[in-house]
Amino acid sequence: MSLLTPLSFVFFTALVGVITYFLTRGDQHDTSDGYFLAGRTLTGGYIAGSLMLTNLSTEQLVGLNGAAFSDGICVMAWEVIAACSLVIMGLYFLPKYLKSGIATVPEFLEKRFDERTRTITSLIFIVAYAGILLPIILYTGATGLNGILDMKTVTGLQNETATLWFTVWLIGIIGSLYAIFGGLRTVAVSDTINGFGLLVGGILIAYLGLQAVSPEGPVAAFETLREAHPEKFNSLGGAKQSVPFSTLFTGVLLLNLFYWSTNQQIIQRTFGASSLKEGQKGVLLAGCLKVLAPIILVLPGIIAFHLYGADPDFKGDHAYGTLVRNVLPDALAGFFAAVMVGAILSSFNSALNSTATLFSLGVYQHMLHPDASEQRVIWAGKVFGCVIAVASMTVAPLLAGQDSIFGYLQKMNGLYFIPIFSVMLIGLLTRRVPAAAANVALIVGFAAISVGYFVPVVSKWLADHIHDFHFLGAVFAALIVLMLLIGQISPRETPWEQQDAGAVDLTPWPLAKPCGAALVLFVLGLYVYFADTSILGQ
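The structure corresponding to this sequence follows.
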């Protein structure tokens, strides 16, 4: 490896830190709104950039391109369906959230239901982020960085385990500095800078990959790929592929809707919008970027299949890293590694910031010390963030024994995605369903999915008869019916009325609905253009 690679990596990583410092050095971090919600000053560009880079990390770059290597463009569902989910977020969920002036999703559920609902959801989020999400982000990030930069050689460590521990702690410490001591605006600004770099670097990888397929240009290379591998360009997934077409209407849709409209880690930056208009701009701009994301997250996997697929021992999860190493010059490899670290840090520091927010406002202030000053609440969040960061950095290297870290993450996500989203949807769409229904649904949903995943007899039966995503859809439907039934038997005494907290200007963006409609139509057109319905009968 050329010396240019680590030098360019250090240069670009330091550059992001310096720019972020100068842009945020005057921010106020001594109030809850200032620290947790960026003082409600985020504009559309920062929101879009932060949403995108919080979502993009090594599990997407490596995992989704690996899936595309095996299954082709049908895996683009995880990206383009997200655009439709962001339209729903911008037009329906976001106005409700900003009207209530909330900082966390559990806080909204308390306003709609009761304190127990807030407590249960706060604890579920904290446990999920601290025990599942943060360690996986660190582990996959360290693994990806080790592959691109060859950290074993750079550090001089001869033991792979020691290299993994070093890289995990390096990423964790840098990410913690942003999240714990900088607050949400620092996270959003660094996300936006890194997001631009990731966009440029990701497109460059796709372009250079197409050049490797055909020196006549990207269009000719794309046609070469379609002619050589037509089965890879069917937008409709078959029954034996990772995203069967039918699952787009059950588990895939539900997981996307939760992720982009209810997941605290993702949507916290929208709570910091300076107005509904800016919030909708940011959310819908992120939706536009998501429909372009397959260029970065799917196309390179198909290119790798064309270049390396003849080797029967070549694994899909190695597709992206191999392509990056083979097509990028040494200096640009360092730049892209820096951008990758930015993506990793973004996911880590956003999840850590959200965990600290949930603890400070949902546990420390709400449950333990209701009279605590804002400075004390922020201090508690920083201390808790440090503890969680150290715990995550300790647990992350231990995940090396997992057979499929991506599959493990998806299963764990289902445990809390489905119950919380079902409760949020009922809370928004009904006015008489009581708090007891929501609390029962949270517990029953978590327990039902746990049984389906981890009780051997049940999990085997489900594996033989129903796809995992259809199982999640069935649980979701059952929870909706359960809550509506309880609402009929024992409704609230008075209908729920949402109050305007007056936190921000709620005037909508005039172009929000036209942009949303255009995005949905584009997604439908994309599916129709690449659809080969013959696979549905197989």
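Confidence is low (pLDDT under 50) at residues 29-38.
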